[in-house]
């Protein structure tokens, strides 16, 4: 529905207008009823009524074509048509039995405008009606009874206008309240779904963490035996059997790699011991960026920083928080390095003050221009052991999510025109229980 058309529908009791609305049918029947009343054979009267009917049907189109001035044109045209109808339905226009037709432009103004605009348009419609006094006074004398009748009609014009306008204004306020309530409920539902998803993720992390801890301990012990045996074989066979010594060296190096993997499992499973202190989060992000840049000196990535001046200190463990951003920035560097579709590699880092669920803190955004995350994988990226990298383990973002959760914050992947966009919220106050 076009904007002006929507405004028109909202003005008339906020109903949706179809191609032919029921109120339009009622209007046509009303005009037909007037057409069969005397003077029936007055061609000008019939043409004016036909003009009323056609204009009412296409009124919404006029407002749609002229959203700023269309409403005023509608009221003016109806005033002119009403004045013309009086001129052709009586010897003297002021005495025409069709004088109530002026309620049409008056009610139209009451629907489209506020109280002030309604009073102004009603005054103009009343002036158009009273203009027929000018030719009448040239032939007739204005008696006190005539003045009384005219005053009553004018007062009822204003009474009808204000009653209709009051109803429309109250209806608009009610609709606005419903819209605000609907928006609030929708936002609440979004937050509820987000909290439920985070709760499910936390449950999965806890269960998998316990399993990983037990499994890692069970694996680490035989790995120690294998490594010790391999080193002993390597020393004994290095001179006599070079090939066997070389193979023993391979065993030792692969055991080291498995030990590193087990250590990551333990990092994921081990309960975090937070040493939270107020920290300047922008400085932590900058240190994480510097650390990643040392790892990728030839990355050719342009960094754009946008830190708010009014950024509050956040209550975090400095080392764990830096680990979060090292992981996110490292992922951004790797994804942009693997994407050859666009030579421009930009990393955007921003930080602003924000409130989340009534808690003040800072929102930090890490956004890159890489290939992004496919829609079908967006819900899985924080799950443990899920990875799209050939040599990945799938614990990086899971550990990041766990660290953020332990701080009472939140992390989510947001929609971005290109690349991945992670938003991390870290509170500046402890959670009140």
Notable traits:
13 helices; two-stranded antiparallel sheet; five-stranded mixed beta sheet; alpha+beta; rod-shaped; disordered N terminus; Heat Shock Protein 90; 7 strands; Helix Hairpins; 3 domains; 433 residues
Structural notes for this entry:
The chain has 433 residues and is of the alpha+beta class. It folds into three domains: 3-142, no CATH class; 199-269, Helix Hairpins, CATH 1.10.287; 277-427, Heat Shock Protein 90. It is built from 13 helices and seven strands. The protein has helices at 3-11, 22-35, 43-57, 59-65, 70-87, 103-112, 115-130, 133-137, 144-237, 242-269, 281-295, 318-337, 396-406, and strands spanning 277-279, 302-307, 314-316, 346-356, 359-368, 410-414, 421-427. Strands 2-4-5-7-6 form a five-stranded mixed sheet, covered by helices on one side. Strands 1-3 form a two-stranded antiparallel sheet. Strand 6 (410-414) and strand 7 (421-427) form a beta hairpin. Helix 5 (70-87) packs parallel to helix 7. The radius of gyration is 39 Å and the shape is rod-shaped. The two termini are 48 Å apart. The relative contact order is 0.06. Residues 1-19 have low confidence and may be disordered.
The helix fraction, in percent, is: 55-70%
Strand order of the largest sheet: 2-4-5-7-6
What is the C-alpha radius of gyration, as a whole number of Å? Answer: 39 Å
Termini separation: 48 Å
Which regions have little confidence, pLDDT < 50, spanning 5+ residues? 1-19
What is the annotated CATH architecture of the largest domain? 2-Layer Sandwich
């Amino acid at each position: 529905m076009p904007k002006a058309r929507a405004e028109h529908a909202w003005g008339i009791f906020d109903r949706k207008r179809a191609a032919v609305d029921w109120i339009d049918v009622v209007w046509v029947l009303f005009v037909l009823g007037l057409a069969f009343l005397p003077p029936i054979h007055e061609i000008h009267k019939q043409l004016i009524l036909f003009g009323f009917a056609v204009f009412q049907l296409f009124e919404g189109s006029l407002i749609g074509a002229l959203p700023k001035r269309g409403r005023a044109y509608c009221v003016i045209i109806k005033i002119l048509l009403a004045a013309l109808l009086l001129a052709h339905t009586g010897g003297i226009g002021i005495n025409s039995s069709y004088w109530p037709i002026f309620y049409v432009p008056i009610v139209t103004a009451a629907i489209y405008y506020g109280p002030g605009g309604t009073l102004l348009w009603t005054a103009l419609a009343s002036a158009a009606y009273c203009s027929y006094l000018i030719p009448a006074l040239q032939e007739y004398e204005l008696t006190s009874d005539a003045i009384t009748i005219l005053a009553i009609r004018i007062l009822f014009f204003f009474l009808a206008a204000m009653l209709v306008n009051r109803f429309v204004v109250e209806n608009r306020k009610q609709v606005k309240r419903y819209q605000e309530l609907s928006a609030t409920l929708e936002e609440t539902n979004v937050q509820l779904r987000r909290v439920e998803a985070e709760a499910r993720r936390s449950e999965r992390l806890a269960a998998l963490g316990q399993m990983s801890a037990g499994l890692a301990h069970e694996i680490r012990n035989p790995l120690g035996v294998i490594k010790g045996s391999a080193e002993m074989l390597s020393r004994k066979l290095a001179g006599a059997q070079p090939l066997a010594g070389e193979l023993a060296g391979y065993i030792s190096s692969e055991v080291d790699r498995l030990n590193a993997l087990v250590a990551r499992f333990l990092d994921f499973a081990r309960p975090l011991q937070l040493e939270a202190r107020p920290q300047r989060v922008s400085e932590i992000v900058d240190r994480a960026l510097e650390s990643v840049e040392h790892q990728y000196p030839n990355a050719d990535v342009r960094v754009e920083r946008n830190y708010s001046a009014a950024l509050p200190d956040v209550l975090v463990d400095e080392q764990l928080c830096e680990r979060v951003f090292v992981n996110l920035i490292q992922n951004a560097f790797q994804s942009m390095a693997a994407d050859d579709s666009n030579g421009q590699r930009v990393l955007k880092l921003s930080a602003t003050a924000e409130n989340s669920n009534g808690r003040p803190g800072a929102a930090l955004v890490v956004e890159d221009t890489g290939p992004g995350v496919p829609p079908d994988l967006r819900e899985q990226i924080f799950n443990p052991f899920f990875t799209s990298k050939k040599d990945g383990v799938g614990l990086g973002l899971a550990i990041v999510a766990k660290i953020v959760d332990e701080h009472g914050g939140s992390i989510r992947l947001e929609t971005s025109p290109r690349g991945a966009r992670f938003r991390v919220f870290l509170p500046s106050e402890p959670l009140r229980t």
